[in-house]
Write a structure and sequence with these properties.
The protein has 123 residues and is mainly α. It has 5 helices and no strands. The relative contact order is 0.17.
Length: 123
């Protein structure tokens, strides 16, 4: 399977996990991306940030006024930040979650590969 299709499948997985189990579980899709794709931290960051971006766009398309009020309120809590900065911080947090879980997926793949190596003949 080509890499763009894998990324698309992993973004769909992230969206399903986000919808069914909560935003925290998007890290599992980042972990899977790090396991199956090269440059795992980047793959995890792309997969999870695309998930966050899709849900942000969907939220604005569904009810822009309510989302704008929410981001203005959160911006007020965070020291009078503009609402666009609150959205950018949300996407940045998603990217960081994806990058860290993708890096963990890469390490998990390396651990599994180590177990597949033949035993040392000197033993």
């Amino acid at each position: 399977m080509k890499t763009p299709y894998r990324v698309l499948c992993l973004v769909v997985l992230a969206a399903l996990l986000h919808l069914t189990l909560g935003w925290e579980w998007t890290a599992a899709a980042g972990l899977a991306a790090g396991y199956v794709l090269p440059r795992g931290w980047l793959a995890g960051a792309v997969v999870v940030s695309l998930d966050y971006l899709v849900f942000t766009i969907f939220s604005f398309a569904r009810d822009a006024a309510a989302v704008h009020r929410m981001t203005e309120t959160m911006g007020g809590f965070l020291g009078n930040m503009p609402s666009s900065v609150v959205v950018a911080l949300t996407l940045l947090i998603g990217t960081l979650i994806g990058a860290s879980s993708g890096a963990a997926g890469t390490q998990m793949r390396r651990m599994v590969d180590l177990r597949r190596t033949p035993a040392d003949p000197a033993r």
